[in-house]
Amino acid sequence: MAGKKAAGAHQDAVASIVEDWARERPELDTAPLEVLARLHRTFLRYSTRLTTAIDRHGLSVAGFDVLTALRRAGAPYRLTAGQLADSGLVSSAGVTLRIDRLEKDGLIVRERDADDRRVVYSRLTDAGLAKVDEVFAEHLDNERRMLGGLTPAECRQLARLLSRLERSITDSDTDPGPAGAQGAPGGQ
Predict the structure, then answer these.
(1) H or E segment at 108?
(2) Is residue 49 within 8 Å of 146, Cβ to Cβ?
(3) Which among 137, 141, 143 has a CA at the least distance from the CA of 158?
(4) 188 residues of the chain, pLDDT tens digit each
(5) Would you call 120 helix, strand, or coil by DSSP?
(6) How far apart are CA 66 and CA 132, in angstroms?
(7) Is 180 left (phi over 0), alpha (psi -120 to 50) or beta?
(8) CB pairs under 8 A, 24+ apart, for 114-120?
(9) Whole-angstrom Cα distance, residue 71 to residue 146?
(10) Partners of 79 in the β-ladder
């Protein structure tokens, strides 16, 4: 065991996983792990840092998503629950739970449409606008630190590749592939 640790000390965890599978099941092509297992592990680390940074401000990541969607909408910084859901958040019901919490915290208010009282908007309060501007600036600084090991050219290249990867994954939804190929990335 000590020899294995010393030999793998310069390899990342995914390289070790790939090496183990090559030894245990040499007939399998483990090339997808080189990308997707790294992506999964990277996402978990990113998610932990994001959550920690947002939590410091008394927000959940879900609440932060609502605040940023409202901020991106531009003045008067208001959207309906349906528009918030369409902006990439969860269902309208899930958005409503987030809105309830943000309203309780004084970061948003609900307003009825002047022309159609059935339409309800969520709007950033002055406190909500100040909070999202502060937290989002810190969020970008945090992301810049996380990308600090890459050059600007590498970041642009990675962004292009990740865009292509997202399209490839989305396109694969229509292709059932081999039976049983839907395993979770955590079980490498």
Answers:
(1) strand 108-112
(2) yes
(3) 143
(4) 444 444 444 568 999 999 999 999 999 999 999 999 999 999 999 999 999 999 999 999 999 999 999 999 999 999 998 899 888 766 666 788 899 999 999 999 999 988 988 899 999 999 999 999 999 999 999 999 999 999 999 999 999 999 999 999 999 988 666 654 444 455 56
(5) strand
(6) 10
(7) left
(8) 119/80, 120/80, 120/81
(9) 24
(10) 122
pTM beyond 0.85 = no
Residue 71: partners with Cβ closer than 8 Å, 6 or more residues away:
77, 124, 129, 132, 133, 136
Tokens encoding 182: 């839907």
At residue 80, the 3 state secondary structure works out as strand
Distance CA 3, CA 119 (A): 67
Tokens, residue 39: 């992506």
Q: Which two tokens stand for residue 123?
A: 């709007």
DSSP 171: H
Distance CA 109, CA 102 (A): 8
